[in-house]
Amino acid sequence: MGARVRRKPVSDPTPRTASKRKKARGRSAEITAGRFGNFVLPLVLSVCLVICLAVLGYLGLQSVTASKFFDVRSVSVSGTERASKTDIERIAASMSEKTGVWNADLSEIRARVEKLPFVKTATVARALPDGLRVAVVERVPIAVVTLANGPMLVDNEGMLLAPPNEREEGLPVILKGWHEGKSEKAFKDNLERVKIYQKMIGEWKELGLVERVNAVDLGDLRSPRAMTQDSGFPVTIEVGRESFGQHLKNGISAIAGKGDQFDGVNLVGSNMILNSRKTAARSAPDQN
């Protein structure tokens, strides 16, 4: 008999095939790793380079902007009539003295300037390399109000501003009856007083009567009164809550030449009732 041929079991792996597969997988991993390295490494280096350049640029910019080249040498102020130009210049200069113009905190300068009397809003801008510009919008006084501590100017928003000058020729009519409390109701009432006052002045100017009035008493918002003179005596005229011009005109006509006998005119409906000085004098002791 011939020699028997010994066969390998089918289940045994073929060494040559397994080796090829292993080598293929190795080459694929090497290719992938190579591609990954070729992409990631330059990217990382680029990012690091950019960060370094940014840091160096920032440090350089800080050094340049902190130099004496940007020291404040001029502050220009516009829009002031009553507000102190000197105070505004001082605030802007002192608050940018250490930082220089480039690093000055413009918002903080603006906030400080807006705390000054008469300043409603302010805009602060850089005028490189060594200047600042401050543009101001002022609060405009519309009346002089009497307070316990003395007269004060007030604007159309009910904001008390500052003591008036000795002569406020543009504000001849004094506003009396101001509520000096700090409550929300006091603020709303005072704002209503300002609105009524402005409407009064507007109507009286149209009729040429504003020169006849020295002051208005708005302590009682339901019964506004104009304070004037007749025959050398002070008199008050109730002008109602509307048609201020017509009521003042009628009151002046009703008391004309009688100021020595009557101290005021009361408005009852559409009727003008004169108030006798003798009656007021007799009732005065009863009020004490």
Structural notes for this entry:
The protein is built from 6 helices and 11 strands. It is an alpha/beta fold. The protein folds into 2 domains: 71-138, membrane protein fhac (Ubiquitin-like (UB roll), Roll), CATH 3.10.20.310; 141-287, Cell division protein FtsQ/DivIB (Rossmann fold, 3-Layer(aba) Sandwich). The strands form 2 sheets. It has an 8-stranded mixed beta sheet. Strands 1-3-2 form a 3-stranded mixed beta sheet. Strand 4 (141-147) and strand 5 (150-155) form a beta hairpin. Helix 2 runs antiparallel to helix 3.
Distinctive features:
3-stranded mixed beta sheet, 6 helices, 288 residues, 8-stranded mixed beta sheet, alpha/beta, Rossmann fold, Ubiquitin-like (UB roll), 2 domains, single chain, 40% helix, 11 strands
Q: Summarize the helix and strand pattern as letters.
A: HEHHEEEEEHEEEHEEH
Shape: elongated
CATH architecture level-2 label of the largest domain? 3-Layer(aba) Sandwich
**Number of structural domains:** 2
Helix content: 40-55%
List the helices and strands and how they pair.
Blueprint: H1 15-65, E1 74-78, H2 85-95, H3 106-113, E2 119-127, E3 131-138, E4 141-147, E5 150-155, E6 174-176, H4 184-206, E7 215-217, E8 225-230, E9 233-238, H5 244-255, E10 262-268, E11 271-276, H6 277-287
Parallel strand pairs: 1-3, 4-6, 6-7, 9-10
Antiparallel strand pairs: 2-3, 4-5, 7-8, 8-9, 10-11
